[in-house]
Amino acid sequence: MLFYESLALTLVVYLVLRGLGRGFATRRGTFAYFALTLVVYGPWLLSRIWGIHFRTGVAWVAGTWVFGCLLTFAIGLPLLLAKGILRLVRAFSKSRAAQGVESVEGRRQFLGNVALPVMALSLGGVGAVGGASSFILAKREIFIRGWPKDLDGFRIGQITDTHVGDFIDPETVARAVEVLNHAQVDLQVMTGDLVDDLKYLEQTFQALDTCLARHGMLAVLGNHEKMHHRLGPTLQAYARRREAGHLRLLVDEREALLHNGSPLHVIGVDFPMHNNANHYLPRSDRQQLMNVSAKRAFPQERPAGEALLCLSHHPDFFPLAAKRGAHLTLSGHTHGGQIAIGGNPIFSTYDYMLGHYQISDSHLYVSGGTGHWLPVRYGVPTEVTVITVRAHG
User: Fold this and answer.
1) C-beta separation of 376 from 390 below 8 A
2) Which sign, positive or negative, has the C-alpha torsion 168, 310, 247, 254?
3) Distance in angstroms (rounded) separating the CA atoms of residues 38 and 372
4) Are 3 and 48 within 8 A, CB to CB?
5) Could you say which DSSP state residue 55 is in?
6) SS3 162
7) Closest to 34 in 3D by CA, of 10, 51, 54
8) Half-sphere exposure (CA, 13 Å, Cβ side) for 253?
9) Coil, strand or helix at 142
10) How far apart are CA 368 and CA 199, in angstroms?
11) In what order do the strands lie in the sheet with 187-190?
C-alpha cells in the first residue's frame, strides 16, 4: 500500500509547490516534476509487478523522494496557509505594512521554487542512504535480578519488522538468520511483521528454516500479518513448519524450553487488533485486547525460580508482562522511529520507542527493526540483535 499512498502524496506535494512558487505552475516546472515522478515510480512499479528487487537503487531513490515529499508537505502546507493570509492583508489593507508584502512574497517565491525542494530532497537523500544500508549486529547484555543462575549467559537472537516486500527481500532475512547462526545464539526469535508481499512468503520461510539455534526459532504475529488478507497464508506457513518442530508460532500461548536442566518459559502474545482491521485502536480498546492476551498466555502464577521470556510485537504490552512476572520482554513495531538525533527518536509516538527499559525487576528491549516499509533511516540503523541475559543478584 505504501506505493499508492506515496503516489498520492506526490500529487498533493505538487499542488503545494505549485501554490508556493510560480516555477511549478509553468509547463517546464510541471514537466520536470512529473518526469522525476516517473523516474521514481517506474522501477518501483516494475519491482512490484515482476517481483524484481532493484534493491539499493530503488530503495535509495524512493526513500529520497518519499521522505522529501513528507518534509515538503510538513513545511510547505503552513507556508501555503501563510500565503493565503498575506493575500488577505493585501486585499483589505493599503497601509505600509501591506506594501511590505511584496518583499515577503519574493522571499516566499525563492523558498517555494528552490530552497524548500532542494532542502527536502537533500535531507531525504541522507535518510535514504541509511535506509538502503545493511543491518548492523547489535549486541546487548541485560542483567536481571531473579534470572536463574543456570541460565546465566543465555543468548537470544532477535529478528523483527523485516517487512519483506518492496525494499526488503528474502535474502535479507536469510542473511539475518545466518548472522545469528554464526553468533551461536541459544534461541532465535521473530517478533512480528515478517512479510508485506505474499509472493515472497515461501522464500522468506525458507530463509527462516535455515535457523540452527539449539532451541530453534519462536515467533509472534505483528500488525502487518493481520492486514490486507495476509493472516491466513501466514498461519498456514507457520503451521507447516510447526510440524517439524524447529519454527513455532506462539499466539497467546507459551512454550517451555529446557536449557542446561533449567526451564525457560516463553510466552508469545497476539497483536491487539482484528484481522484486516485498523491497528490504530484507541488506547482503551488496545488495552482490553492486551488484557485478554495476557490472561490467555501467562500462567496463573509465575513458576517459582523459573525464567519467563515474553515476546510481544507491540512494546506497550510491557507493563502487563512485568505485572505477570516476565523477566524479559522483546518487542519491535516502532522501528525506533527510524529517525533519531543524538540517540533520541524525533517521532516518539509510543511509550517505549527504542532500546532498553525497566519496570522493577522486569526488562524490555525494543529493537529498531531488521527492515522497514519506508526505506528511510537516520540515527536508527536496521539491526539484528543478540541479547545475552545475565543473572544479577
Assistant:
1) no
2) negative
3) 23
4) yes
5) T
6) coil
7) 10
8) 10
9) strand
10) 25
11) 136-145, 383-392, 154-159, 187-190, 217-219, 247-249
Handedness of CA 57, 59, 62, 66 (dihedral sign): negative
In contact, 164 and 173? CB cutoff 8 Å: yes
Q: Where are the domains of the chain?
A: 2-132, 136-392
Residue type, 83: K
Which amino acid is present at 16? V
Cell numbers for 68? 522529501
Domain 136-392: CATH architecture, name and number where available: 4-Layer Sandwich (3.60)
Residue type, 173: V
Q: What is the per-residue pLDDT for 98?
A: 46
Give the number of other CB atoms < 10 A from CB of residue 256. Answer: 10
pLDDT at 20: 80
Give the strand order in the sheet containing 253-259. Answer: 253-259, 262-268, 307-311, 328-331, 362-366, 355-359
For 144, phi and psi rounded to 5 degrees? -125, 120
Phi and psi torsions of 285, nearest 5° = -65, -40
Cross-strand partners of 86: none
Helices (H), the chain: 2-20, 27-50, 56-92, 96-99, 101-110, 116-132, 170-183, 201-208, 231-242, 283-297, 318-323
Which amino acid is present at 282? P
**CA-to-CA distance for 136 and 352, rounded, in angstroms?**
21
Question: Do residues 368 and 131 touch, judged by C-beta distance below 8 A?
Answer: no
Count how many residues are written for the chain.
393
Read off the amino acid at residue 18.
Answer: R
Residue with the three cell numbers 512494546: 315
CB 360 within 8 A of CB 153: no
> 3-state DSSP call for residue 365?
strand
pLDDT per residue, tens digit, the chain (393 aa), is 578 888 898 898 888 888 887 777 788 888 888 888 888 888 878 777 776 665 556 767 777 888 888 878 878 888 778 777 767 776 766 554 444 444 555 555 555 555 666 666 666 566 555 556 689 999 999 999 999 999 999 999 999 999 998 888 899 999 999 999 999 999 999 999 999 999 999 999 999 999 999 999 999 999 999 998 899 999 999 999 987 778 999 999 999 999 999 999 999 999 999 876 766 778 888 899 999 999 999 988 877 889 999 999 999 999 999 999 999 999 999 999 988 877 778 777 789 999 999 999 999 999 999 998 878 888 899 999 999 999 986
Cβ(241)–Cβ(188) under 8 Å? no
